[in-house]
Automatic annotation (TrEMBL):
GO terms for biological process: carbohydrate catabolic process. NCBIfam families: PRK09589.1, PRK09593.1, PRK09852.1. The keyword Nucleotidyltransferase does not apply. This is 6-phospho-beta-glucosidase. One of its GO terms (molecular function) is beta-glucosidase activity. It comes from Alkalibacterium subtropicum. The active site is at E372. One of its GO terms (cellular component) is cytosol.
């Protein structure tokens, strides 16, 4: 009983949200660099508004972020102190290929991650690497239109082959695309898409999705060829959709909303387009740009495990009159009157994690990995910089409890758990510093002031104990 003996406890981050050093050692510009804080952000990340320049008039906290690029040793030492067994991080594509379409990689970028992985191993921490976490080189967006263009497969192949070869023996857990279903909600982040006027957006999105799905299968193939020890996962922004009522139209709406997410994982895990998606796209006159060999590639190179993020459940309604939607979340959801919400309106539902895990496990029967979960909150440090974040401990403890129930009571096979933003970092949704998730407070305010000093919060000591007892002491 209990969690696996070798359960992978840890934390998760993404390059652009903590590294900073946006132009250090030859790094190129990426889409994630050009989404400033403020009103336009939502319009830009959804691909509706062009903002392809990086200027000084706008505010970009991610430029320096928490300067992890220059302080990673200190940060990893703190992760080691908490007892992390794994650390999920992402590669900034533009450190390796600054423009994206070069033949030869940038050695300084490759060396940075090599040193970082070696640093992790010093503490017995197994890296879990997201190859693309919302990032796409700006050059590929300007020249090729991002993932709408099939040429992206060549660039991604070059990137992944370079990584698997260089980091053989240092990394064995890989994720191809962070929250691949986010393409549909934030296409600029998910696929480097900026819409042209008058084009069929859905067609563009599903074309880009097809390219990413094929690219993911190709990467899985290469990973296994380079080193059979490599394990490759897909990554889903998960969260069960509940029907707003027992009315069949609501139940159908909830099923459809779930399928919109599962579509991606159905392809990555089962190896083919599901019937419901084929029918829907056919009905709408959208052609999937299959090329020779795609079907075989998808079928033969499915993922080894299913990873996902979970912050919240959602509610779907089939009634067009129901329009009381929650704010602040990238997924539209009807408000759930039985749940509390975070300061950003994300509804808090620990039991929803158990339900979601069961749903995913029933569907795919592959090992699961929770690679993001956490509470974004405004922390108020005392005069010594110490944060008593009991609210965060409560959130995490209740979710870990539900996670354990899914394993112990329902038999879900779970590889590990990495809580999101284990050290304070820049928020992907708002681009700001004030929405914090970490066990470690970083002295950096929303305007870029602060010493960048790191101070463990109360949750740091709590999580250390959770890891020590393999989740028994919550
Ligand atoms: C996920 C992303 C992360 C992360 C997290 C929290 O969707 O994979 O990059 O940021 O959400 O979101 P936010 O930063 O908007 O609070």
């Amino acid at each position: 009983m209990g969690l696996r003996k070798d359960f992978l406890w840890g934390g998760a981050t993404a390059a652009n949200q903590l590294e900073g050093g946006y132009d250090q050692d030859g790094r190129g510009l990426a889409n994630v660099d050009v989404a400033p804080v403020g009103e336009d952000r939502r319009a830009i990340i959804s691909g509706e508004k062009k903002h392809l320049d990086f200027d000084d008039e706008h505010f970009y906290p991610a430029k320096e972020a928490i300067d992890h690029y220059n302080r990673y040793k200190e940060d990893i030492a703190l992760f080691g102190e908490m007892g992390f067994k794994t650390y999920r991080l992402s590669i900034a594509w533009t450190r390796i290929f600054p423009k994206g379409d070069e033949k030869e990689p940038n050695e300084a970028g490759l060396k940075f991650y090599e040193d970082l992985f070696k640093e992790c191993h010093k503490y017995g921490i197994e890296p879990l690497v997201t190859i693309t976490h919302f990032d796409c080189p700006m050059h590929l967006i300007k020249e090729y239109g991002g993932w709408r263009n099939r040429k992206m497969l060549d660039f991604y192949e070059n990137l992944t082959r370079t990584l698997f070869t260089r980091y053989k023996g240092l990394v064995k857990y890989w994720l191809t695309f962070n929250e691949i279903n986010i393409i549909l909600h934030a296409p600029f982040m998910g696929a480097g898409i900026v819409f042209e006027e008058g084009e069929n957006k859905k067609e563009v999105l599903y074309r880009a999705a097809h390219h990413e799905l094929v690219a993911s299968a190709m990467a899985t193939k290469i990973a296994h060829e380079v080193d059979p020890k490599n394990q490759v996962g897909c990554m889903l922004a998960a969260g069960k959709n509940y029907p707003n009522s027992p009315r069949p139209i609501d139940v159908l709406a909830a099923q459809q909303a779930d399928r919109q997410n599962y579509f991606f994982i159905d392809v990555q895990s089962r190896g083919e387009y599901p019937a419901y998606a084929l029918k829907e796209l056919e009905r709408e006159g959208i052609e999937i740009p299959f090329e020779e060999g795609d079907r075989e590639l998808l079928k033969e190179h499915t993922v080894d495990f299913i990873s996902f993020s979970y912050y919240s459940s959602r509610v779907a309604s089939g009634d067009p009159e129901v329009n009381e939607k929650t704010e602040g979340n990238i997924f539209a959801s009807v408000k759930n009157p039985y749940l509390e919400a975070s300061e950003w309106g994300w509804q808090i539902d620990p039991l929803g994690l158990r339900i979601t895990m069961n749903d995913i496990y029933d569907r795919y029967q592959k090992p699961l990995f929770i690679v993001e979960n956490g509470l974004g909150a405004i922390d108020k440090p005392d005069e010594n910089g110490y944060v008593e974040d009991d609210y965060r401990i409560d959130y995490l403890a209740s979710h870990i409890k539900a996670m354990k129930e899914a394993v112990e009571l329902d038999g879900v096979d779970l590889m590990g758990y990495t809580s999101w933003g284990c050290i304070d970092l820049v928020s992907a949704g708002t681009g700001e510093m004030k929405k914090r998730y970490g066990f470690i407070y970083v002295d950096r305010d929303n305007k870029g002031n602060g010493t960048l000093e790191r101070t463990p919060k109360k949750s740091f000591h709590w999580y250390k104990k959770v890891i020590e007892t393999n989740g028994e002491d919550l």
